[in-house]
Design a protein that fits this description.
single chain, 487 residues, mainly alpha, MgtE N-terminal fold, Tetracycline Repressor, domain 2, 3 domains, three-stranded mixed β-sheet, 22 helices
């Protein structure tokens, strides 16, 4: 087991190093391309300037195209996201004609939008025409409605109907993520008949680990694992080996719940049915993984107070504007915290040590609260926090805050006492640390739970709000105790 884990880690590490090597190679080609173009531009007086420029330009672009054709679309997407805008667009121009659609599927939403903006209407229709309806569903939010309507007209009737069906569901429902590639069999069929059917196909749908068993009304009765086809007598019937109680989803089920089920039961694929239990599609692990990745990235940005995704190399104006809302909120909360300090200016002027010690109380409280918030947000995302265990969680985190407050309060209080040779100051420091850590634990639980209760993303601005409360109250508690007991 350890050997398998080690070999997997080594494979992942090697793949990452290889990918970084591809990026460096692309960057080198782009630098060489710019250098040669600069040298050619300096020689504009030459009668053959235009011919030389055209040949040099074409030579380097061909070299870049050959390199890109050897890469997987996901690797190209990684390279595009790691390049500044001008270089990104140059690389994108070399891939859009043959594999542009596959690359668009792999890049982040914000980078995808910037690439689509660079395409002419006819070019975008051509790029989207490279994709099947299941993949098109992932791109619909980035495509203008009139453009989407034009693309729909180019699809076969079956694919057009399927795309319209999946678009009828919200992006956090199973129906939006499902695929139409489903292989079905009947209970009455024999294994040899199914094997003959499979051999007659050119290929199997991706992530096929089982076949769906349906009746005459196309209602899903179970699934038949592929291993049952390979390990049993071909003359036996499907009904003897099918799983009659598999994990299956309704089109209206939450994608979050489906993702947890895939993780819990190690699923590769699962049937999707409608309200009448008729089989309508299949949910696969790749779609679930993409959903989880997008949700995780969004949560990480939301906790930092960023409004949605942000391109790493976006224009300065766009990046600055994306951060304004929570910076404005943070500025307001900072003013409130500063007023808490202002209430105790006389105490600070008399005991200068208070000014040097109070950031410690606020900083430790903020860090402790962020730890609690991160755990609660994770618990909400995984569905581990329910109305029945919420109060247990609150009291548990209060206990953790109380214990940490006592341990680190005594530690910091002793440090303050030794540093300033003032026992009462050390006691005030210890008490303030204790109270602020308990407060941080309480607030760290309440903020994400409250946001979740009102239907908001529990990660949205939690860090900013938590910092405001732990800073403001930390200053108030510490300076208030100092005013009462030291003056």
């Amino acid at each position: 087991m350890i050997l398998v884990a080690d070999s997997t880690a080594a494979f992942v590490s090697n793949a990452q190093h290889k990918l970084e090597g591809h990026l460096r190679h692309i960057v080198t080609l782009l630098e060489k391309h710019r250098l040669i173009e600069t040298m050619v531009d300096r020689d504009r007086d030459s009668p053959r300037h235009d011919l030389i420029e055209s040949l040099v330009h074409r030579q380097h672009l061909v070299e870049l195209q050959l390199k890109l054709r050897s890469l997987h679309p996901a690797d190209i997407a990684y390279i595009l996201e790691a390049l500044p805008l001008d270089d990104r667009l140059l690389v994108w121009q070399q891939t859009q004609n043959d594999r542009g659609g596959e690359v668009l599927l792999e890049v982040s939403d914000v980078v995808r939008g910037s690439l689509i903006e660079e395409l002419e209407r006819s070019e975008l229709v051509g790029v989207l025409g490279q994709l099947d309806p299941d993949d098109l569903t992932e791109l619909t939010e980035a495509i203008p409605e009139d453009m989407l309507a034009e693309v729909l007209q180019t699809l076969p009737t079956r694919d057009r109907n399927w795309l319209q069906t999946t678009l009828a569901y919200s992006d956090d429902q199973v129906g939006h993520l499902m695929s139409q590639d489903v292989l079905t069999v009947r209970e009455s069929q024999r294994i040899e008949q199914v094997l003959l059917l499979l051999r007659g196909r050119d290929d199997l749908p991706p992530n096929t680990d089982s076949l769906c068993v349906v009746d005459a009304r196309h209602q899903c009765k179970g699934v038949l694992p592929l291993r049952a086809l390979l390990l049993n007598d071909p003359s036996q019937q499907i009904a003897e080996f099918m799983l009659s109680d598999p994990v299956m989803f309704n089109v209206h089920d939450s994608a979050h719940d489906a993702a947890r089920a895939f993780e819990r039961y190690d699923l590769v694929s699962a049937p999707v049915v409608n309200e009448r239990s008729k089989l309508v599609g299949r949910l696969t692990v790749d779609a679930v993984m993409d959903f989880i990745r997008e949700e995780s990235e969004e949560d990480a940005l939301n906790m930092a107070g960023l409004q949605g995704d942000e391109d790493l190399f976006a224009p300065i104006w766009d990046s600055a504007r994306n951060r304004w809302l929570w910076l404005a909120v943070n500025l307001c909360t900072a003013f409130v915290a500063s007023r808490a300090i202002g209430l105790f200016e006389e105490a600070i002027s008399q005991i200068v040590a208070l000014a040097t010690l109070m950031p410690i109380v606020a900083g430790i409280g903020g860090n402790s609260g962020n730890q609690t918030t991160a755990l609660v947000v994770r618990g909400l995302a995984l569905g581990e926090i329910t109305p029945e265990n919420t109060w247990y969680l609150v009291f548990k985190e209060l206990g953790v805050g109380l214990l940490n407050g006592m341990v680190w309060g005594v530690t910091v209080g002793s440090f303050a006492c030794l540093l300033y040779l003032n026992l009462p100051l050390g006691c005030v420091m210890a008490a303030a640390m204790l109270l602020n850590l308990v407060l941080a634990a309480l607030v760290g639980v309440i903020i994400p739970l409250t946001l979740h209760k009102f239907g908001r993303d529990p990660a949205m601005g939690s860090s900013v709000l938590l910092t405001f409360i732990t800073d403001g109250m930390g200053f108030f508690i510490f300076l208030g105790l100092a005013t009462v007991f030291l003056l």
